[in-house]
């Protein structure tokens, strides 16, 4: 079941926002929209990936976690090529080139992306081979290469190959009846040079060996064939060592690993009759989209490299020859293969605020005063408890929830199914197009429908990214609405790794607003009047512009702090430029992509941009406006991007309790005081990592929050 399309956007009524004070006009010689005032989005995203890679060199992180940062860089780069690079190539392929605010054409962007990405990936392998692996050797963790195998280890590998690998590998000789196979996106493969004739007299000279995805890329050697420590061997080493057994009677002259990254973006029409069915079809095509990057071992002969490039219709610019495994993301398995807690982050226990601990009922606690949690420092369990209690409470009549990423086996899903089985009216708005979670969400939808939940797929053409729960409960003869609003997904796993705000309230106006938003998502009709929330694609963008311009009217008394994952939307950036020109002090805590250029005289000298990279993924979205001493604070599901503000269903919810406003400001000030995990954006687009001044103590914002909110 899918909702209707969004129409009559101009009819939506904007919540009450104070009328902006007249904004001083910009200097006549400054063009706020000039291309030089904006950074390229793709290159900014590469900068973020590089900051993640740099964590692999930061010795304040435990060694295994440093290796994991190196792997996360690979995962981030995979998605970057699958989506961003693929999108630019698609523009050129179909003659739909568009120029963004930075003025860079797709061809220019692809050329610069290739230059920068080659530089970063080369540095990644240098870090792996010359820093991380030697340091792990010192800790008695060994990646045992073929040339280092002892006779006992070589014999064990042979047995493992024959018992575990050989039965599931399907080598493919290349000849007229066996054309080049259609290889799955990001799969590990080998191109093999052969000499001789097979049983049928064929002499092809070449074969492809796909490594089954079911096989682990790293295997721990048993202790009885090793001299001590943790000894790991790569699947690729095993296949290299025994490739001749795949081609009996023939000579293997060379075996070289490679990996193809394909376009993984899904293209769905806006006028689909059955979104779920169309999506199932598109998920199959994702595995076999156009090639966008070829990774090859650096010892692969040039003629084989060119053969692969020609086969995948790629150029030298798309080729990445690497000194090591082509699929570094799989090295994340190291943490599970070795028991070295001394080389990983120590565990911590997320806290539960006293207000909740002292109450058996979440409803009683929320009625007393609104609750604001900051994950992962605060436990995610109160959110789950709220749903569990609602499912069992005979006074609860209805539950409605949006689901973007949650996992089909989550406790959230079980609570919704339980509520439906108990006869409550349960509606789940599931976003099927949550990137790389589509298949999981299709399964989730089926499971909930089987339990009796009404499943809605949102609004065609507008991803439902808002994080909302609405619970309707009968109390003392009337209905009361309880609401949860968040900046992050309803995913308990993410809540242990991502920083996000959870807000719970029974405020009547907010409850009414959320009810109307669900009406818009599940029904048809014009946009309804909203009292306190801002919501995209109707009022969020215009409201943020209005509040930013209002701060500009306060001049040097103005204050703006945004904490976001990304900032790309040109109109919002220009509004921030105007505020800076008016003298407003602006701090932007932008984890990833930032297209705004700070520190430019006459344009943005009052704007500072920093990115916090640490143990947890910064994911909170906060819009803070000083309002001349009476702060307006909004937490949001939306980043400062065109897609969030104009093309998705998003919410921004006000924090009105003075003590909670003070808490949010204290959190923001902690990030602004960070002198070691913060990277500051320079006017030329580079980032410099903050360092403590001489005699100054290190202040890592995440560690401060961990101690403040958990006491650990």
Automatic annotation (TrEMBL):
Catalytic reactions of this protein: [phosphate](n) + ATP = [phosphate](n+1) + ADP
Annotated spans, Disordered: 1-22
Binding site for Mg(2+): 405, 435
InterPro entries per record: PP_kinase, PP_kinase_C_1, PP_kinase_middle, PP_kinase_middle_dom_sf, PPK_C_dom2, PPK_N_dom, PPK_N_dom_sf
One BP annotation, GO: polyphosphate biosynthetic process
Named cofactor requirement(s): Mg(2+)
Ranges of residues in domain Polyphosphate kinase N-terminal: 38-144
Known EC number: 2.7.4.1
Keywords: ATP-binding, Kinase, Magnesium, Metal-binding, Nucleotide-binding, Phosphoprotein, Transferase
Domain Polyphosphate kinase middle: 153-333
Bias type Low complexity, positions: 11-22
Keyword Glycoprotein: no
Protein's UniProt name: Polyphosphate kinase
């Amino acid at each position: 079941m899918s909702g209707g399309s969004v129409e009559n956007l101009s009819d939506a009524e904007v919540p009450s926002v104070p009328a902006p004070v007249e904004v001083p006009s910009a200097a006549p010689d400054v063009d706020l929209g000039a291309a030089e005032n904006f950074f390229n989005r793709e290159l900014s995203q590469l900068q973020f990936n590089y900051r993640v890679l740099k964590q692999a060199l930061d010795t304040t992180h435990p060694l295994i976690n440093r290796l994991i940062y190196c792997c996360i860089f690979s995962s981030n780069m995979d998605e970057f090529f699958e989506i961003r690079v693929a999108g630019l190539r698609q523009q050129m392929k179909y003659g739909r080139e568009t120029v963004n605010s930075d003025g860079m054409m797709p061809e220019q962007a692809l050329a610069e992306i290739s230059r920068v990405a080659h530089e970063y990936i080369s540095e990644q392998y240098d870090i792996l081979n010359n820093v991380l692996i030697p340091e792990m050797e010192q800790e008695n963790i060994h990646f045992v290469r073929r040339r280092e195998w002892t006779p006992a280890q070589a014999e064990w590998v042979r047995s493992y190959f024959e018992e575990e690998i050989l039965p599931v590998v399907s080598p493919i000789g290349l000849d007229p009846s066996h054309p080049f196979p259609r290889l799955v996106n990001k799969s590990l493969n080998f191109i093999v040079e052969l000499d001789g004739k097979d049983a049928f007299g064929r002499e092809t000279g070449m074969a492809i060996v796909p490594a089954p995805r079911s096989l682990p890329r790293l295997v721990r050697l048993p202790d009885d064939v090793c001299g001590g420590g943790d000894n790991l061997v790569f699947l690729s080493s095993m296949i290299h060592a025994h490739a001749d057994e795949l081609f009996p009677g023939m000579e293997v002259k060379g075996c070289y690993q490679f990996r193809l990254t394909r376009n993984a973006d899904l293209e769905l029409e806006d006028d689909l009759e059955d979104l779920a069915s169309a999506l199932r079809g598109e998920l199959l095509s994702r595995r076999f989209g156009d090639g966008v990057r070829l990774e090859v071992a650096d010892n692969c002969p040039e003629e084989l490299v060119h053969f692969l490039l020609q086969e995948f219709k790629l150029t030298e610019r798309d080729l990445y020859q690497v000194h090591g495994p082509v699929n570094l993301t799989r090295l994340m398995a190291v943490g599970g293969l070795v028991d070295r807690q001394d080389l990983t982050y120590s565990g911590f226990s997320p806290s539960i605020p006293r207000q909740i601990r002292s109450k058996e009922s979440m409803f009683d606690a929320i009625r007393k005063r609104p609750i604001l949690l900051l994950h992962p420092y605060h436990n995610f369990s109160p959110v789950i408890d709220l749903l569990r209690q609602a499912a069992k409470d005979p006074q609860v009549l209805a539950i409605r929830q949006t689901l973007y990423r949650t996992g089909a086996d989550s406790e959230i899903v079980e609570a919704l199914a339980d509520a439906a089985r108990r006869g409550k009216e349960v509606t789940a708005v599931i976003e099927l197009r949550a990137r790389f979670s589509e298949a999981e969400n299709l399964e989730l939808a089926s499971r909930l429908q089987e339990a009796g939940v009404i499943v809605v797929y949102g609004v065609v053409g507008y991803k439902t990214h808002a994080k909302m729960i609405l619970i309707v409960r009968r109390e003392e003869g009337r209905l009361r609405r309880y609401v949860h609003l968040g900046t992050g997904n309803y995913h308990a796993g993410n809540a242990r790794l991502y920083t996000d705000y959870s807000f719970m309230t029974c405020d009547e106006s907010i409850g009414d607003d959320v009810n109307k938003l669900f009406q818009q998502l599940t029904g048809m009709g014009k946009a309804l009047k909203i009292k306190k929330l801002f919501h995209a694609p109707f009022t969020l963008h215009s409201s943020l512009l209005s509040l930013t311009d209002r701060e500009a009217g306060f001049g040097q008394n103005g204050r703006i702090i945004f904490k976001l994952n990304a900032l790309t939307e040109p109109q919002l950036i220009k509004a921030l430029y105007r505020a800076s020109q008016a003298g407003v002090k602006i701090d932007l805590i932008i984890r990833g992509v930032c297209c705004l250029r700070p520190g430019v005289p006459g344009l943005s000298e009052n704007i500072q941009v920093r990115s916090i990279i640490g143990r947890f993924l910064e994911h909170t979205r906060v819009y803070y406006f000083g309002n001349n001493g009476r702060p307006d604070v909004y937490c949001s599901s939306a980043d400062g991007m065109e897609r969030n503000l104009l093309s998705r269903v998003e919410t921004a919810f006000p924090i009105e309790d003075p003590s909670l406003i003070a808490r949010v400001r204290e959190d923001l000030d902690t990030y602004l005081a960070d002198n070691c995990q913060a990277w500051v954006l320079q006017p030329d687009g580079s980032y410099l990592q903050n360092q403590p001044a001489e005699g100054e103590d290190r202040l890592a914002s995440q560690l401060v929050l961990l101690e403040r909110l958990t006491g650990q």
